[in-house]
Amino acid sequence: MISLARNVLPVRILFTVFGTRPHLYPLVPLAWAFRAAGHEVRLASTPRWTTDISYTGLPPVAVGGPPQVTTNARDDLAVAVFSQQPWPSDWAANVAGLTPERLACLESIGRYLIAAAAAMVDDLVAFARSWRPDLVVYDSFSYAGPVAAAAVGVPGVRHLSGTDSAQRLEMRQPTNDPLPEYVSLFARFGVPATTDPSSTVDPTPPAMRLVTPPKLHPMRYIPYNGPGGTPEGLMGQRSRPRVCVTWGHTMSDTGDGLLPFRAVINAIAVQGMDCLIAAPAREIELLGPLPPAARALASVPLHLVLPYCDAIVHQGGDGTALTAATTAVPQLIIANSPEADMCGGRITAAGAGIAIRYESHAMVREGVQKLVSVPAYREGAERLRDEIEAQPTPAEVVRALAGG
Fold it and tell me: Which of 38, 81, 117, 345 could form an SS bridge with 144, CB 3.0 to 4.6 Å?
């Protein structure tokens, strides 16, 4: 248990997030568990994300703005990340084995994330000094969070989001020394830089965890995929297999990122299977005319769709993979980034799916056919679901962190 500044309930918990839904959504179950236990909660991010935070029912705090980097620099970084050849699936646990070029890529990502923190840290610390939280819980890539915790002298808890968050991008790769830009964030407020959180909350099941940090609080993954309800017509008996296709929240920003998934939809349809497409409406429109066996579900929470599917094809995001794992749905991961290689490797190792780099329709057809016809994948997915359900609930983690 962490010793909080006040020994009476309720205590105040400040959550911070770097931004983007894949980083926001994993925080929601624990934040609501604190609320349900009677504690005060605030969730801080840049103004762009206050609407998404409001949809969760949690009180948002708008701090700072976008990173002070040029559009060209941001786009060049995205191209560099999504044009990588396959990385080892365990690379985050063996960073020293990466090539100098790959280490340089990681440092570039780290500096971008630090720039994002620099753009929000002044406002975040000002709010923390005014509101006086007893605990700061920060997304693993929200480097303003540990600064705010240090500035007000309270414990800082690092909240992971999956296999991807095993990365420590605030470090000079492959050492344990923090980047100078990270150190300067703390220097603004006259406090020493720290890379060691008071403790770590990890909703990743053990079979998918690459690194086990000290002072770990394992937590059951509870999917939150945004607001919405179950689409009509999904319940009841199915006469043929049904496969969900999704590409998360960031794939469409990478130029041709949608093209493999358009091919996936066709590959599913020609095999006599039904295809459900879970994606934002504006991206579904980009796909053009769909096969008769395909049904588009615009902006629907994924966890309300997957119980009615026999398999899923996706981009290898942690949130998508873990949501599918909670419903024991076998997964075909089409990776095109180092993070997706890592996620796909863990799903494959758990026996819950297949990971590929897209090369042809035939690869997709073969992969989907295996998932729906080979019982071992369903059995592996069920084992992974059971492992998730055996982890402590968010309510139990709240008691461990706040007491009472």
Answer: 117
pLDDT in tens, 191-229: 999 999 999 999 999 999 999 999 999 999 999 999 999
- SS3 of 202-234: the string is ECCCHHHCCCCCCCEEECCCCCCCCCCCCCCCC
Distances (CA, A) of 365 to 270, 334, 337, 356, 359: 9, 12, 22, 12, 12
DSSP string over 336-380: -SHHHHHHHHHHHHTTSEEEE----HHHHHHHHHHHHH-HHHHHH
pTM (two decimals): 0.93
> What number of other Cβ atoms are within 10 A of residue 121's Cβ?
25
* Residue 321 backbone zone (phi > 0: left; psi -120 to 50: alpha; other: beta): alpha
Would the pLDDT of 6 be above 60? Answer: no
Q: Which residues contact 236 (CB under 8 A, 6 or more apart)?
A: none
Q: Are 344 and 367 in contact (CB under 8 A)?
A: no
d(CA 357, CA 337): 9
| C-alpha torsion sign, points 327, 332, 336, 338 | positive
Distance CA 150, CA 67 (A): 22
Phi, psi dihedral angles at 277 (to 5 degrees): -110, 115
